[in-house]
Design goal:
Blueprint lengths: L2 H14 L5 H17 L1 H6 L4 H6 L3 H15 L5 E3 L6 E4 L1 H20 L2 H25 L2 E7 L2 E2 L4 E10 L3 E7 L5 E6 L5 E8 L4 E4 L3 E5 L6 E7 L4 E4 L13 H8 L10 E5 L11 H7 L3 E5 L7 E4 L8 H18 L3 E5 L2 E6 L2 H12 L4 H12 L11
Parallel strand pairs: 4-12, 15-16
Antiparallel strand pairs: 1-3, 2-11, 3-5, 5-8, 6-7, 6-10, 9-12, 10-11, 13-14, 16-17
Helix pairs in contact: 1-2, 6-7, 10-11, 11-12
Keywords: Membrane, Transmembrane, Transmembrane helix
Organism: Marinobacter nanhaiticus D15-8W
Protein name: DUF58 domain-containing protein
Length: 393
């Protein structure tokens, strides 16, 4: 029993001996008994301290309701078209000053009964109303589409490329990312406007673009019409590369396998068409000069045993450290032009080489542990390295 509760209990005892205010004493008796048994912290945590409840602001609740209402009107989507249902408009700072001047002019005209002041006030008021319609019209009909979401390492800025089209002229459209990055474009009917918004990558995994605010103050800056775009696709932040303490995966065989054979004897070679990701050193350029076809020669015994980068190669390390080790190995083997494969929980990428293969492996490492996106990484790997988030041009 706390000292404060004990003191209140003794005061209650003194009041309990009185004959007056018996109902009030019973109420305090029950309350303080509960307080003495449970303690003051429990009372406050359960909301019984009315003084404490009065101090709790409603601002957080109002903000959550506002965001929920906006999210229902503007759902997650890679395409967003602005109409009167999702555009908001209010006077800007200059508009508020302009409205205050109109009010002063109106009061002056009423006071002096001056027709010229009336005329000027109503003309400026009509201009304000016309500007309101024009500002809203400038944003209505604008269509935005997410073209691609960026990928990179922690500390990089992932580039989200967005395409804008409009049914009519749209001037002075400003885009503001959650980090405060700003882009400003003009969109003309029949033309496509594209811009890039950088989003910082802080830790491994999917990187959402967040709420991209779209606003305009055209034509006079008296009013501000705005809305949001909430892309559903996310960028990918790769693991931070950390050099492993030892090399694994048959490095010597992999080095030998990665070196193209300098020989003109094609009797023991397997000829195949060029594929995206093949190194230019492996192309038979003399044959290309004769036939115009890009051909790759795979000699017998050249491939050897494939080099596998396995998640289970580093026992004792936690998941993030293993992924960092694998990211460093992917980078080193890609720079050396080696053929390698990748095995991580839930996904296996067959041995290959080239920049597309590197991107597939790093993307899979970045999404490892995020079950919803690992499947998308597997689809991208099967599709030949095309970005999951890329849209058709």
């Amino acid at each position: 029993m706390s000292e404060i509760a004990l003191r209140q209990w003794r005061q209650l005892d003194a009041f309990h001996n009185r004959e007056t205010d018996r109902p009030l004493i019973k109420y305090f008796d029950r309350f303080h008994t509960f307080q003495a048994v449970c303690g003051e912290n429990v009372i406050r945590s359960q909301g019984f301290d009315r003084k404490e409840r009065r101090r709790t602001p409603n601002e957080g609740n109002i903000r959550r309701r506002w965001r929920g209402w906006v999210d229902r009107r503007i759902p997650l989507s890679d395409e967003q078209q602005f109409t009167q249902k999702n555009i908001f408009i209010l006077p800007s700072g200059a508009g508020l000053v302009f409205g205050l001047l109109l009010l002063v002019m109106l009061m002056t005209g009423i006071n002096y009964q001056n027709s010229l002041i009336y005329l000027l006030t109503f003309m400026l008021g009509a201009l304000f109303v016309a500007a309101m319609h024009q500002t809203h019209r400038n944003l209505a009909g604008l269509r935005l589409s997410l073209v691609s979401a960026g990928e990179g390492f922690p500390g990089d800025h992932l580039t989200f490329r967005i395409r804008a089209t409009a049914e009519k002229d749209a001037f002075g459209i400003q885009f503001i990312s959650p980090e405060g990055e700003t882009r400003r474009i003009n969109v003309v009917p029949g033309e496509i406007g594209e811009f890039e918004l950088p989003v910082p990558a802080r830790q491994r995994g999917p990187v959402p673009a967040g709420r991209i605010q779209v606003e305009t103050r055209f034509p006079f800056g008296l009013l501000k019409a705005w809305s949001w775009m909430r892309p559903g696709s996310t960028g990918v932040c790769y693991p931070r590369p950390v050099t492993p303490p030892y090399e694994t995966g048959g490095e010597e065989e992999g080095v030998q396998a990665s070196q193209p054979r300098k020989s003109d004897d094609l009797s023991h070679a397997d000829l195949r068409p060029w594929r995206q990701g093949d190194l230019s050193q492996r192309v038979l350029w003399k044959r290309f000069a004769r036939t115009g076809e890009m051909t790759i020669a795979d000699w017998e015994g050249e491939s050897g045993e494939p080099v596998w980068l396995d998640f289970n190669q580093f026992p004792g390390a936690d998941r993030e450290l293993r992924l960092s080790y694998l990211a460093a190995l992917v980078e080193s083997r890609s720079r050396a032009g080696q053929v390698f494969g990748l095995r991580i929980p839930g996904l296996t990428i067959e041995p290959d080489q080239g920049s597309a293969h590197r991107s597939r492996c790093l993307r899979a490492l970045g999404l490892c542990g995020f079950e919803k996106h690992v499947a998308e990484a597997g689809v991208a790997a099967a599709a030949g390295g095309e970005s999951v988030y890329a849209r058709a041009s």
